[in-house]
Amino acid sequence: MSDLQTRLIHHPYTPPAGFAAPQPGVYKASTVIFASVAQMRARDWQQKKGYTYGLHGTPTTFTLEERLCELEGGKQCVLGPSGLAAIAIVNLAFLKAGDEVLIPNNAYGPNKALAENELKGWGISCQYYDSMNPADLAARISARTRLVWLEAAGSVTMEFPDLPALSAICRAKKVTSALDNTWGAGVAFAPFEVGVDISAHALTKYPSGGGDVLMGSVITRDHALHLKIKAAHMRLGFGVGANDAEAVLRSLPSIELRYRAHDGVARALARWLKTRSEIVQVLHPAIEGSPGHENWQALCKTDAAAGLFSVVFDDRYSAASVDRFCDSLKLFRLGYSWGGPLSLVVPYDIASMRDASVSAWPYKGVLVRFSIGLESEAALRGDLEQALAKL
Ligand SMILES: Cc1ncc(COP(=O)(O)O)c(C=O)c1O
């Protein structure tokens, strides 16, 4: 190689002095340079003593980790490349062959699919439990149970469990509990006040807020648990890109404002849909008559219920007819995920997604889930009205 190349590589660089802007910079690195072997040896990626390697943290990701701890009331955080990766990190940190994991019957589907496939293949068994019945969880915990997942509200069907009761059972039985806190997002309630050990969060949703980033976090208050999570995280090689971390850092300060804006419109539309003859059940934790409404009332701030809800159509409407309703929507777009500015809709066949022997799905009609974005209530209601007319 030419000398020019060497000179370009070794060109001196020091970050700008006196540049005291409050926005964190985007620091990218795989390699971090040490001044000496002694310094190299003194640093410790697991104890977060200084910078060691890009995969284990940069000033950008460390800042994001600290702010997420602030959001959720935790002490230590690891970041992963998606919300599902955060779930996988927790599973791989705490489960080994012969162990059992308990997952709510209404949990986020890919959490169950990971347990049914990879975990089972590695000799880790899984059981589903009825998260709306704490006695069912208590009865299923055995000497082999090492991890219990909690989720509030339940994915898609939106039942809101009694989280303090469920985590008290885990504590009494000395089993680690992990909450999928994506719905609450650190805004609706304080996860560690509920008594859970771990909070996993799909930052893809409200923390990112733009529908353009995939990321997840795993937060704890307990240093020993964190060290196990950090070790699994390191061995799996789950890093996140600095640009993505910076995108979440930019959105984080507005999370509460956005969360309440999504919530206000979602609640108004859910209430209105409750009055429609086409709908037999509205599933929204903050709406009276929705499963677990009392648990939501007891735990959450009254103005904090996310922007997500589902409805069950009367079974006089066939699946094809409900598909036509979804296809007719113009502002609501067909697509997975939530937490961004664009409203989304997905029809689900719930009976095929849960184990009926644990908690049967009581409805015959099709369920449709709405993720409310940041459009106006009037515009979204108009869109729903015109699509209902096409049923
Ligand atoms: C409740 C819940 N947890 C976790 C995830 C996974 O997040 P990601 O899409 O970032 O993998 C999702 C995604 O939809 C979710 O709804």
Placed side by side, the strands forming the largest sheet appear as 1-7-6-5-4-2-3
Q: How would you describe the shape?
A: globular
Q: In what range is the share of β-strand residues?
A: 15-25%
Number of helices: 13
What is the CA-based Rg, rounded? 23 Å
Q: What small molecules accompany the polymer chains?
A: pyridoxal-5'-phosphate
Instruction: State the major sheet.
Output: 7 strands, mixed
What does the model show?
The chain is α/β, with parallel strands linked by helices and 391 residues long. 36% of the residues lie in helices and 15% in strands. It is built from 13 helices and 12 strands. The protein has a 7-stranded mixed β-sheet, sandwiched between helices. Strands 8-9-12-11-10 form a 5-stranded mixed β-sheet, covered by helices on one side. Helix 7 (163-172) links the parallel strand 4 (145-151) and strand 5 (176-180). The longest helix has 20 residues, at 255-274. The model has no long low-confidence stretch (mean pLDDT 96). Pyridoxal-5'-phosphate binds at residues 82-84, 108, 155, 180, 182, 202, 204, 214, 216, 337.
